[in-house]
Each structure stands twice: as structure tokens, then as C-alpha cells.
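Running log. JK asked me to keep both predictions on one page so they can be read side by side. First protein, sequence followed by its C-alpha cells:
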Amino acid sequence: MMGTTAMSWFWIWPALVLIGLTLLGYLAYRMTRSRAPDRSPAGTGAARQILDERLARGEIDADDYRRRVDLL
């Protein structure tokens, strides 16, 4: 009777190892994605916001603002 109970739980160890490896792989993927530079055009939003703020404060004029926005 004891051997049957022990064998019925035998399948759980490979399942736990598979779940653990999957989680480690997912964490490694998320860590590498968070360190990768954002190369999409949407990543220029922060730069555009800084330019908007500098224009509003009067640090740059409208022509300089347009030139810099075109460079983005």
C-alpha cells in the first residue's frame, strides 16, 4: 500500500522541474528585454516632451524647436 501511494506522487517532480525551468526562462527573457534599448519611434516621446518643456520655458525658439523635432 505504501509503494502505491509513493508511486502516485512520482509524476509531480518532473512537473515541478518543468515549471521551474519555464519560470527561469521567462525571467531571463524579461530581464534581457528590459535592458534592451528602445529603438522604436515611440521611444522619442520623452525627447519630444523635453523639447516641449524647453520651448514653453523659453530656452529655445520656435525655429530651433521645429529643427530639433525634425531630427527626432
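And the second, directly underneath as requested:
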Amino acid sequence: MRKMKMVSVTDLKKSTAAVLREARENGQTIALVRNNQIEGYYTPAGLLEIERASDKEVSKALSVVLKAHGDALTRLAKK
């Protein structure tokens, strides 16, 4: 499990677009901190849906990925 990134509310105000872009690009929830206390969290669109997906939905998505990229994944796994 990755360590959650923490961003101060002050930094969020200064560079909102950069903070949101980083969260989206890294697929990571960010803790928003004020006075060393977590005020809340920012989760990029789509990430929550992935975390809440059912086993059936995950299995279906995995099948699609393996069908499209199975050979490449097998080669990478051998390295």
C-alpha cells in the first residue's frame, strides 16, 4: 500500500490545478491538511468506482485487459 500524499490547504489554494492533476495522474487520494489535522480527502473521478467494483466487474475488466495485452504482460512477468 502506498503512503497517502498530504497537501496543506494553503498549498491547495496556491496550486489547485497541479494538486488535482497529480492526484489524477497517480490515481491517488490526497489528504487535505489544515493545522496538522486532516480536514478531508480528494479522490479523483473514477478511483472510487474502481475501489467499489464488485468481484464480477473486476473479473470482467481483467478478462478484457488480458485478451488485449496478455502476451505483453506474460513477457513482462518473465523479466
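Observation for JK regarding the second prediction: The beta strands are 5-8, 30-34, 37-42.
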